Amino acid sequence: MTDILDLPFDVRPDPDEFIQAAMKWHFSPETGSPFWLRRAETLDFNPRVDVKSHHDLALFPNVANELRDVPVRELLPRAYGIDDVLGVFESGGTTGAPKRVLCTKDWFAKLLDWSSANLDQFGFPHGVDWLGVLPTGPHIVGELFRRSAAVRDGLGFTVDLDPRWVKKLIAQGRHREADAYAEHLIDQVEFVLRTQDIGVLTITPPLLDRLARRSELVDLVNEKVKAIRWGGTQLDPDTQSMYRHEIFPNVTLYGHYGSTMILGIAGERADLADEDPCVFDTFSPYVTFAVIDPKAHRPVHYGERGQVVMNHVSKALFLPNNLERDLATRVEPLPGRVGDAVADIAPVVRFEDEEVIEGVY
User: Fold this and answer.
1) What is the spatial distance between Cα 69 and Cα 267, in angstroms, rounded to a whole number?
2) Rounded to whole angstroms, what are the CA distances from 249 to 124, 214, 297?
3) What is the chain's Cα-based Rg?
4) What percent of the chain clears pLDDT 90, i.e. is strictly above it?
5) 8 Å CB contact between 274 and 261
6) Residue 43 pLDDT > 60
7) Which of 32, 124, 186, 231 could make a disulfide contact with 119, Cβ separation 3.0–4.6 Å?
8) The domain that contains 266 carries what CATH number?
9) Is 197 a member of any domain?
10) 165-154-272 Cα angle (round to 5)
11) What are the beta bridge partners of residue 129?
12) 260 near 67, Cβ under 8 Å?
């Protein structure tokens, strides 16, 4: 039954059979991780018996905060070895100490195939070089950038940004220093754009806004760049339309929304009208969202606002029912998908007793 966990990215498994196979995998002594085998003893239900569908993931507690302290090796399913691990990745540290997860090579390969297919749908070119202005180091988005460029026959140039430092500056009221740091990042973008043939730019909306204020950089982007992939914070429909039609009229724009805690991203839905909000669809059934009323702990109606709950269910990792720091509008998923699509992403003001600061990411 675990073969259903090994399907190619473009073969969608039966959702219920998939969940049941995942429960057998993650809660069997031979294959499950030490973390979940130990945690199962504290549950008031039997995952292998009682969890039969995607909706049953709501039975699990949110264990994301435990990932700040748990030894990361304990998250690796016993059927994997250290040679199967791609790396250890951390959350952005927006809400306190970072959380850590393991990412395996097989999961990342599947994610990369799915992501690259989305880029093809939006007409992203192959065989061009990429420039990424995004967190690297312990952040999975940097790994996704590097490997996305490589799998599409491009070289990846990076301008490293430290989101934790910017958020710390803002929290301390050191806005002038935060502003200077952001301008320093754009200066580095200019160095690369002037000297290299960059066909794809990956950047956050706050930094894209700063880039767009420099006319010489706008000219360079319009001269060289074929596509921009944005993510990390939200881009409203009016600004997105302005970029598409006025500032970068011949450049494809494509957004993504994700979290380290799902080891991946959701991709922008294709063929939306200019006036439509950007809708993000998940890599279902592996990564799924729910938009809920956090006080009532139940889904809001389609078109209503709620807080985002994220699930990751794959052979490599099981992390269900993670209440994120984001608010979103609940949108109907595409046919055959489980969970919700989301739009109009915005952070809550406070999360886990911490003020939420986005900064440049």
Assistant:
1) 30
2) 15, 16, 43
3) 20
4) 83
5) no
6) yes
7) 124
8) 3.40.50.12780
9) no
10) 75
11) 198
12) no
